[in-house]
């Protein structure tokens, strides 16, 4: 995925949009899936175990035996300095990285060889940090697309999402691109809920949103988690995030630095000093 | 230093900035807050010449700068960063910084052919300067890494670093803090204060992190729906009913709040 | 000895569809001679293709360079489009002293090159200057004194249109409008619209039947802009009546050819060869004749050296001597070998005039009941 | 003064041809715009793909004709069309499989796709000539006219006539149907929406469980349909010649861009703008004015703004002017 | 394998191909490929400057090349006295009137207040001006074109040395580029492509139809050459003696001599252009251009005048293409407007740049040579391939005949395959940008 080492992705100056259309070009690699297998024993619902790997085949490793996990009903939060590998770890769990070592288990099944696409089919929902809505589609169409893999009647789920985010119901026929930042985040989360995922992964859902929206979002996330859906998220807004977290992972240079419940980490003076800004 | 006089910016029928009037005092660090979609970035873009206002006037030190292109404003000492990092992706981090200073003699074609000596000297100085900035931002190890291969937060640092390469008069920072680790953000805050004190830079800071605003900014301007909602010290703003309703909110309603306080 | 003859035509590019028939015609003459085994004490002849692309002088020059300096051809049938022909002649044929006989470069502009070509350049197609005059006369005699003209926008079309207009106006005719059309373009409504507006008793189409010319005629017929036309050589072929049949009844035309028998005869020769090319495509018999002339001249000179046989081309092409029809090359070779004299007639009734181009005997045609019928020869 | 005849002349020489040509361009431009919007590159192989599709249709038409199958008053080629579309789909999908898919998996930049399409263009170019040769082919049969000039005159007693060819009528009707179907498909169906979603944001589409390969496949299928229809209609109306199809690329692109690349509506508008500008700007108004104006005002000259030599140049001028005032095309294409 | 090593090998390989041509075919062929390769390399350098350095998509290369060709006629052909006398002045006055009309329109647009009055005034000025212009101009043109249409019928040139036409060709192209750049670049670079495409078509339309200028489609042949004439050499006893002394046939020697002369001239130009381009690339200017290419908005915010830089690089690149065009017309010895086709002069040059490696000057040079070599040689290679493939089939097998007949179309097919292969295995070109 690295632009430097993949020659096909070298960024030639193709600014001329009468020739190419860079709008909405994807990053997620397309590949064929391998086999999955059942794993015996007690394991968390979703776990990325001892993951080691980097962005390209012979690029340096970014993650080093990094483990992150979440269980139903829990909120797990990943924090750490910039460049620690938080986003990378999320991507690794979602199969957007070739892991050299380690594995990813979902509900007792080893899914390390699955393509991101098939992980979606397995019930993993992911909200990327940016570009997380279809700007040219209406809010309702966005939600419909969220439920794309479902063949059953989606009107109930849609109603639930509208209950959760009433503002979306008002704006259902508006192009999502016309919404404000916070509203977009709500669409994004709502979209991922439409999938009826088994687990929800959020990458910095609150970056750049105003305090009031942030509170709102955190509230919703807690509500969602209460319904039994495990939530795994990356947050820079660490203090608030750890405040609601059942599990916290502090990553440092691609390694697990500290792990514990949200409260434990908040209480740890070292963590406070070096990652939470005192 | 900068006055914004009844500026409007419409996108089609949508009024992103709807009659904003404000003044930025020389030597201050002004905070600009407001809900998402309030028009803060748009206002920045109008001031910095990226967007032409639908109507209204912007002046800088008494001079009308409405509609001047960004590169002219740069040479007048007006710099800005971007909310979404705009790194030069195929260049190394160091090059990202070295390209910033204007008036490099090596940027004239003629000199590239017949003025090699002078260019070499200038380059040495630029390089030293760039390394200094990288070190300050704690990313000196990334000097030779391509800019599109660093993490989101690191890109933001680079963004800030560029404004440190030249002597500016006024710097507009658009959410430098979003996605930056809090500990590092503190360091950045210190740097901003230092630049403000030592070099007398004027700053305008858009930020959603109230702690950060608290630490740096006085006065604070709050925008909503394209208009200036309130203006004053942070304490005043925080007490303003309208601001609370539109922007700050009253905190988390349930468990989260409890968690924070614990 | 194995003698090589270059066939330098635009096998790819804008006139590729015409060349698809010209090439085989040239090869037919070459094969005929080679198979006879009579040329220069049993020499064999092979034709080597070179692609001019019709438009890219550099590619054409490179191809010619390869034919002459690498394959060592002793003569070239070609080129096709006047532009590349001029470039090849100047840059390659002339410096290396190789004979070129072009079957299709009819532009009057090439004529003046004959003065400085060391006698190396000939063409089996008459210069357009002559055709313009013939055309003007035919129309006038038909009682037509006001026409609109459209020409294919190249030196052939332009040259023909110019010379026609001059000749026509001289004898009292009027041209209501002259509009160029580009070959190979998507749509000709604009041209037809403008021509229709200008009006005229007849539309003169100085184009190619397998190119834009057909498109123009089609559109003009369908919109009722014109219902009779006048067709110069580029348009005159079986494809024309095949395409338009009786729709163009009453139209006239002319093409370089002395007698109807020649046309028929060439068709037979082509059919006998078993090729699937169309012998009535414009410039196809000319291509056959060009190749034949080169080979006959060699025989007459007793050598394949271009600098020698170039002086015999006029001799074999013109009277006196035994007339040689298409398909009779073996007979001609024999006569020449015996020291006799031939007057090559070939597919187009070749008659070369100074400086080395076809005299331009024209067959005047009237389209009647969807057939093209001969009115007379000029 | 005779307004009616003036109008007939105008319709016969300007409106009908321009509408037909416009529909042909619009269909071509729709394909270009679909590829641009969903696969994100300008497909330089478009003209030659059209030739490819038409070639198949021609071969099948010949087959049908030799078997004695015909469509009555309509061209036999219409019967061949569905099969030709199927074959073209296969062609395009194979090409995609051999060429583009690799780059898609590599997440290659759009410009690489553009260059690859240039390569594909060359290859198709050669292939078509390999199979069918460079010759001109007419493959239309059936009734030639819906109404011919003679019939029209007889019918109305006017001094000017109006002709509408069967192929012209077909072209316009088919274009309308195809466009309507396409809009319905994109706006209303699940697959259509997923294609729009993919065009909007690839990654997110994938995260929503939309299979990118399927979207790509559908796109090629629709494009195959569009180009084959456009190519066959064009070939029926004019004639088939590989080189001309290559040359069609330019006006088709111009149409797509004027209309706003990525916008289907724009592609249609663009097609008509280019067609009308080619025909009208260089039109000699003499005949129309002679009818329309009182006798003593009748023009003696041709009243032609520019000679037809410049018709292509003029349409480009118009294009540039449109872009000056509407930089993203008339219907605001995908460029932001 | 180090980079230099790899590049050297690549260049050596192309050189090897050309030398092989020399042995297998003839040295004349090889030299001709070199000459056109040099010109192609220069064109590719020009396009690379625009695309590789600045990300400007110029699909109007053909137009600039053609302008270069026009320059050769205008500079080097002798003036046609009769034509000048017949209508020279009138045409010039006509052009001035035309220019004045446009200027008048612009002035009215700028000076008058917006509104109906302005629109009317503008339309009136343009309309009246247009008809006056056409009246004066058309009469002049007619007079000029009537002067011996088959031979001249145009104004001719200035009768200056032909080498002077090369820089003039560059200037003409630069002028056109300035005009396009001012319209298209100022607004947004997005639609540069279509503007260049359009202008190229317009340039060609003018060349084809304005007979008074350069004889239109009737071509101008017999352009002066900067090197001696082969025939003259063959008739020069001194030369013949020297050639025979070397043991070479004088005819061959003369054409080799002439080609070497051209090669030398072209090489000098290429080396100068390459040197200038390399220097510019590896300098703060090059860095600035890369920054602009990467992110225009950020570059603008960092004080770089993006539009001005784009204009600069666009003009430079176009000027280089124009110069190459003039060189090519000089080599051809004639100006043939109908030969300018986008496939050959725009797409092919693009293939050179992409295959060579965009953003890298050496890559462009390599691409220029390699692609030109292939463009010329795929034809015989195609024939050869076809005859090998069909070797086992019977003489008169229909398939065999068909394949052999279609061999000419191998040219495009092969070009396509090569492009696809290079893109596949070396997507950034043979010598990628560092
Ligand atoms: N596309 C990429 N190619 C190569 N290396 C990358 C790429 N993206 C990130 N990296 C490197 O991986 C490391 C971890 O990056 P990552 O984005 O995971 O950090 P992060 O913890 O999410 O930081 P932040 O909080 O700033 O977003 C960084 O050192 C970065 O340089
Ligand atoms: N180019 C554009 N076209 C149309 N609408 C736009 C455009 N740019 C911004 N907007 C709209 O203008 C409004 C103001 O946007 P702006 O980016 O200024 O908000 P902001 O105050 O910076 O918000 P945030 O805190 O989320 O960054 C938003 O609703 C946005 O959707
Ligand atoms: Mg991150
Ligand atoms: Mg903002």
Walk me through what this model shows:
Chain D: One of its GO terms (molecular function) is L-isoleucine transmembrane transporter activity. Chain D: It is a multi-pass membrane protein. Chain D: It comes from Aquicoccus porphyridii. The complex is a heteropentamer of chains A (278), B (262), C (378), D (336) and E (434). Chain B is an alpha/beta fold and 262 residues long. Chain B has a domain of 182 residues: Rossmann fold (3-Layer(aba) Sandwich). Helices cover 40% and strands 22% of the residues of chain B. Chain B has 11 helices and 10 strands. A 6-stranded mixed sheet of chain B has the order 6-7-8-3-9-10, sandwiched between helices. A 4-stranded antiparallel sheet of chain B has the order 2-1-4-5, covered by helices on one side. The C terminus of chain B is likely disordered. With 378 residues, chain C is an alpha/beta fold. In chain C, the strands form 3 sheets. In chain C, strands 2-1-3-4-5-14-13 form a 7-stranded mixed sheet, sandwiched between helices. Chain C has a 7-stranded mixed sheet with strand order 7-6-8-9-10-15-16, with helices on both faces. A two-stranded parallel ribbon of chain C has the order 11-12. In chain C, helix 7 links the parallel strand 8 and strand 9. The relative contact order of chain C is 0.14. The mean pLDDT of chain C is 84. With 336 residues, chain D is mainly α. Chain D has 13 helices and 2 strands. Chain D has a two-stranded antiparallel ribbon. The longest helix of chain D has 37 residues. Chain D starts with a helix and ends in an 11-residue tail after the last helix. The mean pLDDT of chain D is 86. Chain E is 76% helix and 0% strand. Chains in contact: A-B, A-D, A-E, B-E, C-D, C-E, D-E. Chains C and E meet through helix 1, strand 2, helix 2, helix 3 and helix 5 of C and helix 2, helix 9, helix 11, helix 14 and helix 16 of E.
What labels describe this entry?
heteropentamer; C: 378 residues; alpha/beta; seven-stranded mixed beta sheet; 13 helices; 16 strands; D: 336 residues; mainly alpha; ABC transporter involved in vitamin B12 uptake, BtuC; two-stranded antiparallel sheet; 2 strands; binds adenosine-5'-triphosphate
